[in-house]
């Protein structure tokens, strides 16, 4: 007794070059479509990187110029504040700072 054959939905699909089932998707027995066009271009005629470098430079500049006013002022303020805090910390931990602000030792 041999096992039953596999049932596939969507109609019978063709067997491809290597004996693989190509599927039955879209094979519902309807009429073929009309007016569908397809175009192709040879791989030798394509220029996949045409204008990439030029577009990248100008796109980076455009994006940078639109965002710099959102990023630069907080970064400058943070840099100046950090510089002030480091300088103040060094002064307070120095001999002169301890004499001025430190408590008297007993």
TrEMBL record:
Sorted alphabetically, which keywords does the UniProt record give? Answer: Electron transport, Membrane, Mitochondrion, Mitochondrion inner membrane, Respiratory chain, Transmembrane, Transmembrane helix, Transport
Q: Which Gene3D superfamilies match?
A: Cytochrome b-c1 complex subunit 8
- Claim: Iron is one of the keywords in the record: no
Superkingdom classification of source: Eukaryota
Show the Pfam families listed in the entry: UcrQ (PF02939)
Instruction: Give the bilayer topology.
Output: Single-pass membrane protein
Primary location recorded for the protein, binned into one broad class: mitochondrion
Indicate where this protein resides in the cell.
Mitochondrion inner membrane
Task: List, alphabetically, the InterPro entries matched.
Answer: Cyt_bc1_su8, Cyt_bc1_su8_sf
GO cellular component: a single term: mitochondrial inner membrane
State whether it acts alone or in a complex, and with which partners, per the record: Component of the ubiquinol-cytochrome c oxidoreductase (cytochrome b-c1 complex, complex III, CIII), a multisubunit enzyme composed of 3 respiratory subunits cytochrome b, cytochrome c1 and Rieske protein, 2 core protein subunits, and additional low-molecular weight protein subunits. The complex exists as an obligatory dimer and forms supercomplexes (SCs) in the inner mitochondrial membrane with cytochrome c oxidase (complex IV, CIV).
Recorded hits in PANTHER family, A to Z, give: CYTOCHROME B-C1 COMPLEX SUBUNIT 8 (PTHR12119:SF2), UBIQUINOL-CYTOCHROME C REDUCTASE COMPLEX UBIQUINONE-BINDING PROTEIN QP-C (PTHR12119)
What family does this chain come from, according to its entry?
A: Belongs to the UQCRQ/QCR8 family.
The role this protein plays is: Component of the ubiquinol-cytochrome c oxidoreductase, a multisubunit transmembrane complex that is part of the mitochondrial electron transport chain which drives oxidative phosphorylation. The complex plays an important role in the uptake of multiple carbon sources present in different host niches.
Q: What is this protein called?
A: Cytochrome b-c1 complex subunit 8
Record lineage: Eukaryota, Fungi, Dikarya, Ascomycota, Pezizomycotina
Q: Gene for this protein?
A: qcr-8
């Amino acid at each position: 007794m041999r096992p039953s054959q596999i049932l596939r939905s969507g109609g019978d699909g063709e067997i491809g070059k290597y004996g693989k089932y190509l599927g039955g998707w879209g094979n519902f027995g309807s009429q073929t479509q009309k007016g569908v066009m397809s175009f192709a271009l040879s791989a030798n005629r394509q220029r996949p990187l045409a204008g990439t470098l030029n577009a990248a430079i100008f796109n980076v500049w455009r994006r940078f110029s639109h965002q710099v006013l959102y990023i630069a002022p907080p970064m400058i303020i943070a840099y100046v504040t950090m510089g002030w805090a480091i300088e103040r910390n060094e002064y307070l931990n120095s001999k002169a700072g301890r004499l001025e602000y430190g408590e008297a030792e007993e």
